[in-house]
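EI: anyone free to look at a 190-residue chain?
SC: sure, send it
EI:
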Amino acid sequence: MPDKKKEPMEKAEEAKVEAVAESGAEQNGTSDVNAAVATAKEEAAKNYDLYVRARADLENYRKRAQKEKEDLARFANENLIREVLPVLDNLERALDHAGSDDADMKGLREGVQMTVSQFQKALEKFGVSALVSVGKPFDPAHHEAMGQMETTEQPSNMVAKELQRGYLLHDRLLRPALVMVTKAVDKKED
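SC: here you go
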């Protein structure tokens, strides 16, 4: 990719080389001058190639540095969020164990439910989303299998039960879901 600023400089340089060549031709002979001109042109082409490569390297470095800066800003909260997720898990477990039959615990259940909702909304503001696993095919990139369950209700290799919810941070896996995977029932003939 020729540089417009470089073209006039190259022409001026060539004019100088030719002027030197003409004056040198009178003194040293044309063969020496032609060799000097050829050497100068080769060196100029080599230097121009090095310049173009250096510019391309610099541009690539700038792009890479900008991407790293953006990633740093997007994922800066990752460690904090990893530490906070177990608290959310425990609140959800408390809701599961509280049940819905006991009228005396209704206020406590509602308070914990509101806390869980606030927690989830706050995480969503920072780009955290929960993985939906149950009923989906097992994906080792997003799930960690804790065991297998034999069933005839679902095809093999599907997520049957979620033991711990998985989370994504801006489409990057933050924590895999701990799941139970379906397996076909072995039919043994007696």
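EI: The chain has a mean pLDDT of 85.
SC: 👍
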